[in-house]
Write a structure and sequence with these properties.
Aspartate Aminotransferase, domain 1, alpha/beta, 41% helix, binds pyridoxal-5'-phosphate, single chain, 413 residues, globular, 4-stranded mixed beta sheet
């Protein structure tokens, strides 16, 4: 069959709905200054869908630094991969400051968080090694694992007993192959908002020999003292052997980094294909990241404000009778029951009549009949935003329960 014919026939789980959803549910355009109040189709919406946790995206010092760095260096500088012609003192300074921030010896900068995880996993293991990973891992971990030529064992999400069981299997196999074991999990799971059981997994090191790689995309900046991450929060940062953070969330930028022992980072620097064979981060991004890191260190009150909003939102939702699952981080899922048409109508009502914009998760990402509205609080939301949202959610859930969003009452947008 012709490839083009094939993809025309099967457009993928989300793509199959693209005609109806494009521009509204998928690829919506949020316009104006990044923050809790943005324009959608020319009308202001209260926005809960951005990972701008600390509110840095539009911080005046950040905007000034970004603009000045772009004016001074342009977006092309430096050219080439780090190893060949793309290194600068700013890149090295950022690596050194990030290492101190996450309490590791050394750090390597990466162009994108996703690509960093995939490529680091690929780089660290060979066919003799065994990977043990959490079942609800982010796509970048799953894709890194897909590249692995050796065995992998998956443990039930955040189930330490199952992790131990998989480690037993992995240990047996690694003894046969002469390989090592890499355990991979996340600091904060971005859908449910629960923290990975890092402390408990680190404790398994007393029984098993393995290295722990943690993706802390949502934890850096939001968890632990001064935002040092989920390992700091749980008092087990030393037990995390390889730590990953992205710039795409709390840092409100783009890029990512991996921190570890000096010799591990040195190995990554000389072997990680995504960095050896790709252009290095442009200077304005590196200088912008340095400014954001400085602000995070100087202003712990941004993280305090994030948590004030998070606590108000989560306790208010629970008090109003909503199920927010097991979150213990700012990520706030609101679980409801309903069909996909009901979810669609509910979101349209929420956006058009209550002017609230948030992400919706339905089947096939979650089981059939489940609707998750996912709220991301930030330091720049207000308690008024929280109150308004909870009051609006109470109204829409009543409508959901009384069948007002049924398929035959399809709203149009
Ligand atoms: C857990 C997790 N890991 C990795 C990534 C990828 O990061 P980036 O957006 O920097 O590519 C994300 C972002 O979506 C994430 O949520």
């Amino acid at each position: 069959m012709d490839i083009f014919e094939k993809i025309q026939k099967n457009r993928g789980p989300i793509g199959q709905h693209s005609k109806e959803s494009h521009g509204y549910f998928t690829f919506p355009k949020l316009e104006g200054e990044i923050g809790p109040h943005m324009l959608f189709r020319d009308k202001e919406k209260l926005n809960w869908s951005l990972n701008n946790y600390l509110g840095l995206a539009n911080h005046p010092e950040v905007r000034k630094t970004d603009a000045e760095a772009a004016a001074q260096y342009g977006l092309a500088t430096p050219m080439g991969a780090r190893m060949l012609s793309g290194n600068t003192s700013f890149h090295e300074q950022l690596e050194s400051e990030l290492s101190a921030f996450v309490q590791k010896q050394d750090t390597i900068l990466c162009n994108f968080g996703y690509q960093a995880m995939v490529s680091a996993i690929d780089c660290l293991v060979d066919r003799r090694d065994v990977i043990v990973y959490d079942a609800e891992s982010h796509a970048c971990i799953l894709d890194g694992v897909r590249l692995h030529m050796g065995k992998r064992y998956v443990f039930k999400h955040n189930d330490v007993a199952d992790c131990e069981k998989q480690l037993e299997r992995a240990t047996k196999l690694a003894e046969e192959t002469g390989g090592g074991i890499l355990v991979i999990t996340e600091g904060v799971f971005g859908m449910r908002g629960d923290q990975g059981c890092l402390k408990e997994i680190v404790a398994l090191k007393s029984k098993f020999k393995f290295r722990l790689f943690v993706d802390d995309a949502h934890g850096i900046g939001t968890m632990g003292k001064n935002g040092g991450g989920t390992g700091v929060e749980q008092g087990c940062q030393d037990g995390i052997d390889i730590y990953f953070g992205t710039f795409a969330k709390s840092f409100a930028l783009i890029g990512g980094f991996i921190s570890s022992d000096e010799q591990v980072v040195d190995f990554l620097r000389y072997n990680m294909r995504s960095q050896i064979f790709a252009k290095s981060l442009p200077l304005p991004l590196v200088i912008g990241a340095l400014k954001r890191l400085e602000l995070m260190r100087k202003h712990p009150e941004y993280k305090d404000k994030l948590w004030e909003i998070t606590n108000a939102l989560q306790s208010g939702l629970v008090k109003a009778g909503f199920n927010i699952g097991v979150t213990n981080t700012p990520v706030t899922p609101v679980f409801m029951n309903g069909s996909i048409p009901e979810a669609t109508n509910l979101i349209i009502d929420l956006r058009e009549n209550y002017d609230i914009f948030c992400s919706m998760v339905v089947y096939p990402v979650v089981p059939k009949g489940m609707i998750i509205l996912r709220l991301i609080p930030t330091a720049v939301h207000t308690l008024k935003d929280v109150e308004y949202t909870i009051a609006s959610f109470s109204k829409i859930v009543d409508k959901l329960k009384t069948g007002q969003y049924m398929a035959d009452k399809i709203a149009s947008v």
